[in-house]
From TrEMBL:
One Pfam family here: TPP_enzyme_C
InterPro entries: DHS-like_NAD/FAD-binding_dom, THDP-binding, Thiamin_PyroP_enz_TPP-bd_dom, TPP_enz, TPP_enzyme_TPP-bd
Reactions mediated catalytically: 2 pyruvate + H(+) = (2S)-2-acetolactate + CO2
Protein name: acetolactate synthase
Domain Thiamine pyrophosphate enzyme TPP-binding: 374-511
Annotated ranges, domain Thiamine pyrophosphate enzyme N-terminal TPP-binding: 3-106
Family: Belongs to the TPP enzyme family.
Organism of provenance: Nocardia bhagyanarayanae
Keyword Magnesium: no
Domain of life assignment: Bacteria
Length: 518
């Protein structure tokens, strides 16, 4: 006879789920035991739930399908919420399995009891509570289908312990997700007319449109009409490098974005939202659409955004070929590391077909220019702004694509949120090279002090933005988690260590020490 946990896992596998990132507890023990009865699924242990959810995000961005997370009751889910927030903003499919007390135990309000559905609602998750061992297979199949809707999303299955251990009917057949809607011909024709009018337009793309097909279509449209193409500020997955159309990202700072959008009479959005400021600032607008400009939505989120862009390109740029970035590498710099030259080392040595998990934040402001002509690569950025994403996303990406080199460009302040991801890298022997940019400060907050007008800063305020006293030895921390590590203070050292790390299998960390930009 099959118990509920076995039926659940078999159903997940039959629906195409191959990996479970987990940090389980007592309520999930039957799920854990059932992993051995379904050999087609891989279990990956993470030491903190924020690493679990971030790894599932990185996996989905590269694999294009969901992994499953295994989380222990409401507190386990709560620990993973920050990176589920980033995953929601990335529009990726994730299947959460959250253990729950047995139904008969709920009445006693045991210490770990909580309102799990309140937490799933906070993360905008589609949610299903397992009701019986007989039904759990069908519940699992519908959860996977919900995660793979258009746009993809987080889907959560709450698994009571008695549903897990009870005898049931076995696995259920996969459920087909709702397909993406086809582009609306009338909308495509209307926007084509606007683009032919000669009025100044910006084409802002995001979501699924930031990989090659979407970039090619957007570049053709821009070449034919003079519209300015821009990629959303924090794309989930952006394909870049030699041979790929080089389209600028919308600036993070409102002042940068305002300059890029200045003069636009039309803002056409595809796969993203109209631009807004990341935060509110005294005396400055939150809405970054230029005054008087009209916003046009090429396709709603439920539609096939890439197909809509290609239909628009067929209307206005039928005879226009895409323009790929020219291969060109920066010169290898020399001397002490700083915020400008460390990115030149990465740009000069970036391997072909790399995956870059970028959470370098203020230290990476010059990264895009330094890598524009590097070999083709994919960049995974901080979609929701909740720091602590970079290392877990690198873990998931490496599990999804073991044949590709993964480069984690990681700021120091963000790294400590989920530093235990290094242990999972070591345990799974993942090919991840982490370049940890160590400026011993929350530099972005130092910058924001002036931007929000908080100019009266004394020693107490300064202490909340400083990461020294004591300085953190990230090379020693990495070695403690089982990851070989070195320290670089010069361009020559970073170049030598980066080359060596890429040449060896398994994870490596380089503690790259630079002065703060702010």
């Amino acid at each position: 006879m099959t118990n509920g946990a076995q039926a659940l896992i078999s159903t997940l596998v039959d629906a195409g789920v191959e990996v479970c990132f987990g940090n389980p507890g007592t309520s999930e023990m039957h799920f854990v035991a059932a992993l051995d009865s379904v050999p087609r699924i891989r279990g990956v242990l993470c030491l903190f739930e924020g690493v679990v959810t971030g790894a599932a995000d990185g996996y989905a961005r590269i694999a294009g399908k969901p992994a499953v997370t295994l989380l222990h009751l409401g507190p386990g889910l709560a620990n993973g919420l920050a990176n589920l927030h980033n995953a929601r903003r990335a529009h990726v499919p994730i299947v959460n399995v959250v253990g729950e007390h047995a139904d008969s135990h709920k009445q006693f309000d045991a210490p770990l009891d909580s309102d799990i559905e309140a937490l799933t609602g906070w993360s905008h998750s589609w949610t299903r509570r397992g009701s019986s061992p007989d039904r759990i297979g069908r519940d699992a199949a519908e959860t996977v289908a919900a995660a793979q809707a258009t746009p993809p999303r987080i889907a959560t299955l709450v698994l009571p312990a008695d549903v897990s251990w009870g005898e049931g009917r076995g696995p259920a057949a996969p459920v087909e997700p709702v397909p993406a809607a086809a582009p609306d011909p009338a909308t495509v024709a209307e926007i084509a007319k606007i683009l032919r009018s000669g009025e100044r337009a910006v084409l802002l793309i995001g979501g699924a449109a930031t990989t090659e097909r979407g970039l090619v279509a957007a570049d053709r449209i821009a070449a034919a009409t003079g519209a300015r193409p821009l990629v959303e500020t924090h794309p989930a997955r952006l394909t870049r490098g030699a041979g790929v159309p080089a389209i600028d990202r919308l600036g993070y700072l409102a002042e940068q974005a305002t300059g890029q959008l200045d003069g636009a009479e039309h803002v056409i959005v595809a796969g993203t939202r109209p631009p807004v400021s990341f935060f509110a600032y005294p005396g400055k607008p939150s809405d970054l659409v230029p005054a008087g400009a009209q916003v046009h939505r090429l396709a709603e989120p439920e539609a096939d955004i890439v197909a809509a862009l290609e239909a628009l390109a067929a209307e206005v740029a039928a005879d226009v070929a895409p323009r790929g970035a020219v291969a060109s590498l920066p010169e290898l710099p020399s001397g002490p590391l700083d915020v400008r030259n460390w990115v030149q080392v990465i740009g000069a040595l970036l391997p072909e077909n790399a995956i870059v998990s970028d959470e370098s934040n203020t230290s990476g402001v010059f990264l895009g220019a330094a890598t524009a002509g590097s070999p083709r690569h994919d960049v995974l950025s901080l979609t929701g702004g909740a720091i602590g994403q970079g290392l877990p996303v690198a873990v998931g990406a490496a599990v999804a694509a073991p044949e590709r080199p993964v480069i984690a460009l990681q700021s120091d302040g963000s790294a400590v949120y989920t530093i235990s991801a290094l242990w999972t890298m070591a345990r799974e022997n993942l090919n991840i090279t982490t370049v940890l940019i160590n400026n011993r400060a929350y530099a972005i907050l130092r910058m924001e002090l002036g931007r929000v007008g908080a100019t009266e800063v004394g020693p107490k305020a300064g202490d909340l933005l400083d990461l020294s006293r004591p300085d953190m030895d990230f090379a020693a921390i990495a070695r403690g988690f089982g990851v070989p590590a070195t320290v670089a203070t010069t361009c020559e050292e970073l170049s030598e260590q980066f080359r060596a790390a890429l040449a060896e299998p398994g994870p490596h960390l380089i503690d790259a020490r630079i002065p703060s930009l702010f």
